[in-house]
Amino acid sequence: MYHTHLPAGVRKSRPLTESEPAGSLQRKYHCVKIYQTVSQLYPFDGIIQHYAWGGYEYLPRLLQRENPQHEPWAELWMGAHEKGPGNLRDDDRTLADLIAANPRAMLGAAVAGRFDSRLPFLFKILDVREMLSIQVHPTKAAAEKGFAAEERDGPARDAPDRNYRDDNHKPELGVALTDFYLLHGFRPLEAIRTTLADVPGWQTLRPTLDKRGIDGLYERVMAADQNEIDALLSPLVEEVSDGTYDRDQPRFWAKRAVEQYTQDGHHDRGMFSIFWFNLVKLTPGQGIFQAAGIPHAYLEGCCIELMANSDNVLRGGLTPKHIDVEELLRHTTFESVDPELLLPVPADNPWREYPTPAPDFSLSVAKVPTGYPITVDARKAPGILLLLSGILESGQYRLNEEHRTIFIPAGETVEWSCISDAEIYWSTVGEIK
Fold it and tell me: Which cofactor does it need (predicted)?
């Protein structure tokens, strides 16, 4: 998919290994600055979403902008989603306007045909300061069925108790930019059974687990009335209130859940999931894929997220928002999950790609030293190039720490010259069959 071109007369001796410093490329190759004429590309600025759970410093610093009102900057959206399409630079249009005006030219015939003339992914950077809600996303077939039913019978698309706001699935890939903590899928049966002996007040749940398994146990606490939830969680709340814990301990996050969600003595039922789901730590560069049916929640840290265009979320706690227990249970995977931490695998040097099964998107990363040229191949599908650090130039186009994102239409092959050591991410469409 991607190609790295060396200057004429320069022979590539071998790929750069993970252990070699990026600067070693400069010693291997004669590096030159490349000037070329490229077809029209579309630099744009992403949209900040100021959700209450967001951080205050990471995104303003990344974008070289002030935050005088000390607002939470939760997400940077880089895409054409109708709720936050990127703004083209030196143009009064959005990226969504650009694509809608000529989808076959911008997306390519295959992508436009497969994805209803829309860019099928949304590229984000998240700064998670407070815990996000526990979520499950439906399959494509389930989303189509659920959306059609709610379109027919209600509620309205913008109603707070709406489950399906569109007819799409929502697979997600997250890649850590800092140490990043999350919940992902159910733990093994025996590990969950251990929590019922370890957590005060939960011993009475043991018969439910023994008779009905993990799904029966989860259904019991999700369907219980608030009085029963408070009775089951109060001993734990009292225990953690004065304790000190590390982030690799569920009690650390249980204590934070109390601080964030307990109100008037009423506790959030998502606290059970903190103990029953896998607690995962990603270090920078590690990724994880959220498939349909896998319950998950982001807890803390900064990450890149690449996802299919959808707003379909079935919530399971750690939230004041609507929880449709019946629909949640219908689409949750209860089998134990061994979290698979993803590292990018070699593509065409120096590109490395995060492997996922999603047809909607693909994410690759490259670290390029000063003077080294790199090609982005968008011949089959369009994409968004994100410069995380450094400087890139191609003809009249320049990416730097003030202007980090550019949309490359389908059919283009763009060669960039690295002016300063760069870390870049390329988000595009998955394999079109």
Answer: Zn(2+)
The Cα–Cα gap between 407 and 415 comes to: 14
Same domain? For 164 and 310 the reply is: yes
User: Which tens digit of pLDDT belongs to each residue from 197-231?
Assistant: 999 999 999 999 999 999 999 999 999 999 999 99
- Do 77 and 224 fall into the same domain? no
Active site residue 315: yes
- Within-domain flag for 225: yes
Determine the structural domain holding residue 128 and report its residue range: 42-183+281-331
Provide the number of structural domains found in the chain: 2
Residue of 114, 129, 251, 315 marked active site: 315
Asked if the structure places residue 120 within a domain, the reply is yes
Q: Is 266 annotated as a binding residue?
A: no
Phi, psi of 369 (to 5 degrees): -80, 160
Band (pLDDT 50/70/90 cuts) for residue 306 is very high
Tokens of 252: 């650390």
What's the predicted TM-score (pTM) here?
0.90
From 311, 331, 351, the end of a domain falls on: 331
Q: Is 5 labelled a binding residue? A: no
Asked if residue 137 belongs to a known ligand binding site, the reply is yes
Residues 53 and 166 in one domain: yes
Residue 211 shares a structural domain with residue 227: yes
